[in-house]
Amino acid sequence: MCSKGLFLERQQLDFKGQHIISIRDLKKKELLKIIDCASQMDAEAPGDLLKGKILATLFFEPSTRTRLSFESAMNRLGGNNVGFSDPKSSSAQKGESLSDTIEMVNGYADVIVIRHPIEGSARFASMGSKIPIINAGDGANQHPTQTLLDLYTIEETQSKILSQEKETLKIGMVGDLKYGRTVHSLTIALSMFKCEFYFIAPEILKMPEDYVNIATESHCKVHQLKELEEIIPDLDILYSTRIQAERFFDKNEYNSVKNAYVLKTDMFKNVKDNFKILHPLPRIEEIDKAVDQLDCAYYFKQATNGIPVRQAILSLALGAIS
Ligand code: CP
């Protein structure tokens, strides 16, 4: 189906059998292809494209959106799911290695989605897998499918700013920029487009230098700030993130920053018409519940976009579309 759409004008790309481990592995045209495919799937139910195929979801860390939206995407395409959401219920609890687990699941499924707390674990898993491995988050490193749905949401709300590149996207990222894998992946991806970054964080949660360098070396302007409110009127997107208690060794350090940036309705009185607040979710206290009622609050729709985007990823990886 996707090959009948906008892609005819682009080079045909083959995702069949490919792992999706890091956004660094994808080129701009591949990002745009996945967005295009997702858009077509959103517009028209694609039917039983993956009938007879099995997805294994191996979640060694908690998840609501990523696991359920992958499973829902698979079900909606006529496929089936196996897997676990708690490693204590798997033989990892008895000491089975990740490589043995992947070897076994290669015999039970056609594609694997994995979330694991150790950085690099998805890449390691892919090395011993004959079926596609999709990284659903490896520690503080990468969360590429979240980034794809973030890009899809930005394209959807900003008049095709990514595919047309007529204007520069001004995006603020606020909160935990040090450990936040979603903002790391998103910075890499948006650096391929016309983008101006505003990184807003306390000193101890600043965006790591590696990611700042990726943006600047790609000729994107970068501003590093501690104050949020005064730049909101300039932004197209504000990407809020949770301060992640589970990534801190020192609880006192966590307590010192946990409420550093709490979004409240009165901060959004003077925003651009196209302005949207995004958040990968879950949110804890960083977005006041009252903000949910504002037109610019888009984070729940953003999470729903996980369905067409993950339908596109699964269909491409399994060769059901090209
Ligand atoms: N955005 C995201 O990864 O959410 P979950 O942790 O619920 O999967």
End-to-end distance: 8 Å
Largest sheet: number of strands, sense, barrel closure: 5 strands, parallel
Shape: globular
The hetero compounds bound to this protein are: phosphoric acid mono(formamide)ester
Whole-angstrom Rg:
19 Å
Contiguous uncertain segments of 5+ residues: 3-11
Mean pLDDT: 94
Total number of helical segments? 11
Helix content: 25-40%
Portion in beta strands: 5-15%
Strand ordering within the main sheet: 7-6-5-8-9
Q: Output the helix-strand order.
A: HEHEHEHEHHEHEHEEHEHH
Number of strands: 9
Structural class: alpha/beta
Tell me what you see in this structure.
The protein is 33% helix and 15% strand. It has helices at residues 28-43, 65-76, 98-106, 121-127, 144-157, 161-164, 181-190, 209-217, 251-257, 299-304, 306-317; strands at residues 54-59, 80-84, 111-116, 133-138, 169-174, 195-200, 221-225, 237-240, 276-278. It has a 5-stranded parallel beta sheet with strand order 7-6-5-8-9. The longest helix has 16 residues, at 28-43. Phosphoric acid mono(formamide)ester (CP) is lined by residues 63-66, 146, 280-282.
Task: Lay out the secondary structure.
Blueprint: H1 28-43, E1 54-59, H2 65-76, E2 80-84, H3 98-106, E3 111-116, H4 121-127, E4 133-138, H5 144-157, H6 161-164, E5 169-174, H7 181-190, E6 195-200, H8 209-217, E7 221-225, E8 237-240, H9 251-257, E9 276-278, H10 299-304, H11 306-317
Parallel strand pairs: 1-2, 1-3, 3-4, 5-6, 5-8, 6-7, 8-9
The chain binds phosphoric acid mono(formamide)ester.
